[in-house]
Amino acid sequence: MTKTALLKIEDKEYPLPIMVGTEGEKAVDTRTLRATSGHVAYDQGYGNTGSCASQITYLDGDNGILRHRGYPIDQLAHHSDYVETAYLVIYGELPNATQRKEFGLLLRKNAAVETQMQKILEGFPTNASPMAMLSAMVSALPAYYPQLATNNFEKDLKGFDQAAAIAISKIRTIVAMIYRYQHGLPYIFPKQELPFCENFLHMMFSEPYQDYMAVPEVAKALNLVLLLHADHEQNCSTSTVRMVGSSASNLFTSISAGICALAGPLHGGANVAVMHMLQSIHDEGDDGSRFIAAAKSGSKSNRLMGFGHAVYRNFDPRARIIGDACDTVLKRLGIDDPLLRIAKHLEEAALRDDYFVSRKLYPNVDFYSGIIMRAIGIPMNMFTTLFAIGRTPGYIANWREVAADPKGRIYRPRQVYFGPPKRDYVPMARRG
Ligand code: SDX
User: Fold this and answer.
1) Residues involved in catalysis
2) Residues 6+ apart with CB under 8 A from 310
3) Ligand 1 pocket test: which of 240, 303, 365 has the largest number of ligand atoms within 8 Å of its C-beta?
């Protein structure tokens, strides 16, 4: 029996169905609101609006809960790896041994990037934004796989497994190519025999005649960083992928749009902003109090980067996991990074400060991720591209929900207009 909400406007009442999700979260279904009442719901930034019914990730911001297809993120972080979690996010179930083997094989077979695509990369200045380069390269993929990117959902879904493997595997390779190009180094081609993360590190750091041998701790740390970024409900970039996908844009084009959204410093770009903040605290011998004071000014440009979240009003569970991993990884690698101590001091200071406590502002995934990425040798300007590699399974799974929805419609939000009222055209001669 569906419960209903009753909206009363003047003397009329409008029944609206109540939707109840798996975990009891409730929504007022306003799809009939405009047709029945002539009103639209207004929610700038969609912070209180459910844009879709999804089965991929459950996130409870008040209680700091994050689950992918029902599996808690801490269990996946402890027991799984990035490729297995990618399979789970995309296909909905943990793979059995055969499925895991086949998926891994598909990723390895699709690791190489067409040589011709080097020309796209080399059309950029070497100091261009790696995220701009990445989105450009990904938006070019449909040209090389037209049979998988017809912008016709029925046809595109037939090649979905192949397209998904291409997206995950080649985005990883393209990121390594960007690093090599920016540093004037020859491209290193993937080795089919290497696992996903080890192959990435090989393509990043090997030399033409000297293979980079990733120590297990580094590959494990990279696996964790990518796994923790695999999906995160309807965040800004994932919602962008769904928005673009809803116009029947193919998987690659939709992911390219998501990468553009992810690049923003308030979103995926925060991990770089955090490191700049920690570095300047270190260089000035500051204890972080200047940043905390500035962050309390409330201006968007002074925010404590890596802190706060559009949904979490509690610890981001990923921040806890990655914060703990920082200690382990740096110790195992024999790295004493002063920025880690500064980050921990900053976290302690902020969590004692009423400004942050009263606003329920806690560290998010970006607060510590940069420290681990730096420890494994990733240059700072590449951090957000690793976030993109990690998030690709989430983009794919969300694109597929849109493409496979038989009742799906193009995403087309409404607005409330506050511009000038109707007025007639004024010829030039009569203008002021
Ligand atoms: C990611 O959505 C996702 O899931 C994203 C993500 C994912 O996995 O996809 O989790 C990844 O993007 C994490 C967030 C990375 N961004 C940053 O770390 C940048 C710093 N954080 C903020 O800019 C901010 O917290 C946002 C952008 C993350 C959220 O912005 P909101 O939703 O506008 O914040 P809010 O409405 O909850 O703010 C409430 C109050 C405001 O003050 P008042 O108006 O009440 O006085 O808290 C203040 C804000 O000014 N505030 C901060 C702050 N974040 C919010 N004040 C200082 N420092 C901050 N970081």
Assistant:
1) 309, 366
2) 47, 235
3) 303
Q: Which residues line ligand 1 (CB under 6 A)?
A: 232, 235-236, 266-267, 270, 295, 298, 303-311, 359, 361, 364-366
Q: Which whole number is the average pLDDT over 271-277?
A: 93
Contacts of 228 (CB under 8 A, 6+ apart): 73, 77, 318, 321, 322, 365, 369, 390
Pick the CATH number of 270-376 from 1.10.1200.10, 1.10.230.10, 2.10.77.10, 3.30.1490.20: 1.10.230.10
User: Cα-atom radius of gyration of the chain, to the nearest Å?
Assistant: 23
SS3 72: strand
pTM (global) more than 0.85: yes
Mean pLDDT of 168-176: 98
Q: Is the pLDDT of residue 386 over 80?
A: yes
CATH architecture of 4-66: Single Sheet (2.20)
Measured between alpha carbons, how far is 94 from 84 in angstroms, rounded to an integer? Answer: 7
* Ligand 1 atom closest to Cα of residue 311: 2
Q: How far is the CA of 179 from the centre of ligand 1 (A)?
A: 29
